[in-house]
Design a protein that fits this description.
Length: about 150
């Protein structure tokens, strides 16, 4: 093969790496951004589960129905705050009907937490900046402890 022919043959591949990088870079960057957003959403869902657990457990340790309501709301708020989740609105529904059951009968407290969470720290243009997180948990009341 002559020198001129070899130069022409090797010149065909010039710049192909740059073109491949220009084509693949946006896809790779998009993959990583989607992974970060999905991870952030998964962490937010886990925070909602944790807040519902904390609220139900705190309410079940209370002696009275009124105290259980107050402590459950406070526990849910504190749990979200501790995990770095900011809620635009937070609704804590507490079912304390178990406190009205007679001592000696099994009873429980059910808490449902609904948080419209701010996710703007990872949001991109065109993506929603918030997500609605829902979680619930049931915690048993001590069967032989007095309830008022």
């Amino acid at each position: 093969m002559s020198r001129a022919r070899r130069r022409r043959a090797s010149g065909r591949d010039r710049g192909s790496t740059t073109i491949e990088l220009a084509i693949l870079a946006p896809a790779v960057i998009t993959f990583f951004v989607v992974a970060i957003v999905a991870g952030r959403f998964a962490i937010a869902l886990q925070a909602a589960d944790s807040a519902a657990f904390d609220a139900a457990r705190t309410a079940s340790l209370s002696r009275t129905e009124a105290t259980a309501l107050t402590r459950a709301r406070t526990a849910a708020t504190n749990s979200f705050t501790a995990q770095g989740i900011r809620c635009r609105s937070l609704t804590v529904n507490v079912d304390t009907s178990g406190f009205r059951r007679p001592v000696g009968q099994p009873a429980s407290v059910r808490v449902e937490v609904v948080c419209v969470a701010e996710l703007r720290d990872v949001a991109l243009p065109g993506m929603p900046g918030s997500a609605t997180l829902r979680a619930s948990f049931i915690s048993p009341l001590d069967t032989y402890r007095s309830r008022r």
